[in-house]
């Protein structure tokens, strides 16, 4: 079965086609109790997508949107709580595994996944056949020239201050889903195009899938994004498209269970 713990929402897929959607509790202990109640029976194995960086052992290294989880042994605690073996990875890495196995990145040997949600996550996958590595990156915290906004990570000028739902909601004084101004979304598309181009060029990617609630719900984002990418990417062709799966991190959490441990760099 699979669990996706995002900065705002948690989804539980017991594997029977039903998905339970809950609000993520910022309190770590309450979140564990909520998951215990939401998971039916005793699963054989659980893949977990998490909205933050984890160590190879599954401890939470950093989670800018779930600060109370930092330093906690998430994998160990979930194994005790759910009485099952658990694998945990960053949500962008799970999104990538899902899109590569089942979605728009099938067959791509150099590809990336970017999630636009509460925060901005990015992961990439390099390799062919059974020899590959999927790795979490900090491309969401790449520095944007001329941007003097302070980011929750402590840096000044991060891409996340221009694209992340939490950062934008705070600055605009209203949730991003309430913003309908076309000019705003054109500016958003330009910032996103610059960030995607740098991410793709730095790793020589052929394809990037963009997922997360903002990418999925904002259809008006895509025409200006395609135009801005075409202006910038005149050297290497990079296929940039919307994630094909409705919930790529949740699908990827299922894939994670069967991924060799050496195939994921956290
Ligand atoms: Zn940052």
From TrEMBL:
Gene3D superfamilies: 3.30.420.40. Coiled coil: none annotated. PANTHER family: BIFUNCTIONAL UDP-N-ACETYLGLUCOSAMINE 2-EPIMERASE_N-ACETYLMANNOSAMINE KINASE, ROK (REPRESSOR, ORF, KINASE) FAMILY. Belongs to the ROK (NagC/XylR) family. This is ROK family protein.
């Amino acid at each position: 079965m699979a669990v996706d713990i995002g900065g705002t929402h948690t989804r539980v897929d017991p594997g029977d086609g039903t998905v339970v959607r809950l609000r993520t509790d910022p309190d770590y202990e309450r979140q564990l109790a909520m998951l215990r109640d939401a998971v039916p029976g005793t699963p054989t194995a659980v893949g977990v997508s998490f909205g933050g960086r984890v160590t190879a052992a599954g401890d939470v290294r950093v989670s800018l949107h779930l600060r109370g989880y930092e330093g906690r042994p998430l994998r160990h605690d979930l194994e005790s709580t759910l009485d099952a073996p658990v694998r945990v990875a960053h949500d962008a890495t799970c999104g990538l595994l899902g899109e590569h196995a089942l979605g728009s990145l099938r067959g791509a040997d150099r590809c990336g996944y970017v999630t636009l949600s509460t925060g901005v996550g990015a992961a990439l996958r390099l390799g062919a056949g059974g020899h590959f590595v999927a790795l979490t990156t900090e491309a969401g915290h790449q520095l944007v020239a001329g941007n003097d906004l302070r980011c929750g990570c402590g840096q000044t000028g991060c891409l996340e201050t221009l694209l992340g739902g939490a950062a934008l909601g705070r600055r605009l004084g209203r949730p991003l889903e309430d913003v309908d101004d076309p000019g705003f979304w054109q500016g958003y598309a330009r910032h996103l195009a610059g960030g995607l181009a740098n991410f793709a060029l730095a790793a020589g990617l052929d394809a990037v899938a963009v997922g997360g609630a903002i990418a999925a719900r904002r259809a008006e984002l895509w025409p200006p994004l395609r135009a801005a990418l075409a202006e910038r990417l005149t050297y290497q062709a990079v296929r940039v498209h919307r994630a094909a799966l409705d919930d790529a991190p949740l699908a990827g959490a299922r894939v994670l269970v069967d991924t060799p441990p050496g195939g994921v760099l956290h």
